[in-house]
TrEMBL record:
Protein name: Chaperone TorD
SUPFAM superfamilies from the UniProt entry: TorD-like
Family annotation (PANTHER family): CHAPERONE PROTEIN YCDY (PTHR34227), DIMETHYL SULFOXIDE REDUCTASE CHAPERONE-RELATED (PTHR34227:SF1)
Pfam families in alphabetical order: Nitrate_red_del
Comp. bias intervals (Basic and acidic residues): 14-23
Family annotation (Gene3D superfamilies): TorD-like
KW Transmembrane (keyword) present: no
Organism: Desulfolithobacter dissulfuricans
Length: 236
């Protein structure tokens, strides 16, 4: 079976060959670069919400600002402030501190309840609820399994749902079909219902500029995704 939560995104190409959407134009039509940019953001955000010790941290933090900045340019997202923060932090982030902050934010906080990264908690107030089982079925229908390194995560973890969106986009690009119907269905039924609430909670709780900036980037991106899907659905 193929694995979720693994690799870094591929290069999105040079500026000269991008197809950037503009008002009044179908943003999904004939725009491979648009889909590459969406894939890259989903993939980097997925990695960002995994435990830092479980990814190639040095490579991730080095590549993050550039990949997000290039994707934001293609998607016409204003991430100027967040990119300045992340670029400035990329050389000085302390790995151990980020691991500790991740643990306190999402896993175990001795002073307060952590921010749960699970859909079931937001939509059903439980762990491994119906949401998680439905998401698991999505993965299995596409022949996917969670990578062994991340097998401790439940299916509806934010990182896995974002990674599945990246996988659907990549699948569409490789096959020559957009797979937009599948993307819209999964987004609308899962991350689109709860992820922005999760990100708002992260920004409320954290005092760490790295996690705050990431949550802001993710929130702006998911809002843009919602608008793109709405536009596409109206055009069907």
């Amino acid at each position: 079976m193929q694995k979720l939560a693994m690799n870094f995104p591929t290069d999105m190409g040079s500026r000269s060959d991008r197809e950037i959407h503009s008002p009044g134009r179908d943003p999904f039509a004939h725009s491979e670069k648009l889909h590459q940019a969406r894939y890259a953001v989903y993939k980097m955000l997925s990695l960002a919400y995994l435990y830092p010790g479980d990814i190639e941290w040095d490579e991730f933090v080095r590549e993050l600002p550039g990949i997000l900045a290039e994707a934001a340019d293609i998607l016409e997202l204003d991430l100027t402030a967040e990119m300045e923060t992340l670029s400035g932090l990329s050389e000085i982030l302390d790995f151990e501190q980020i691991c500790c902050e991740h643990t306190m934010l999402f896993i175990n906080n001795p002073h307060d309840d952590p921010v749960s990264p699970y859909e079931s908690v937001y939509l059903e107030d439980t762990i491994m609820g119906r949401c998680a089982r439905v998401v698991q079925e999505f993965y299995e229908q596409h022949g996917l399994a969670v990578d062994r390194q991340h097998s401790y995560l439940l299916p509806d973890h934010i990182a896995l749902e974002l990674d599945f969106m990246a996988w659907l986009i990549e699948k569409g690009m490789e096959s020559g079909s957009s797979s937009l119907g599948e993307q819209l269905r999964f987004f609308s039924d899962h991350p689109g219902l709860w992820a922005r609430r999760f990100l708002a909670d992260v920004r409320t709780v954290t005092t760490n500029s790295y996690f705050f900036s990431l949550a802001t980037v993710a929130d702006k991106f998911l809002q843009n995704e919602k608008q793109l899907f709405f536009f596409w659905n109206q055009k069907k």
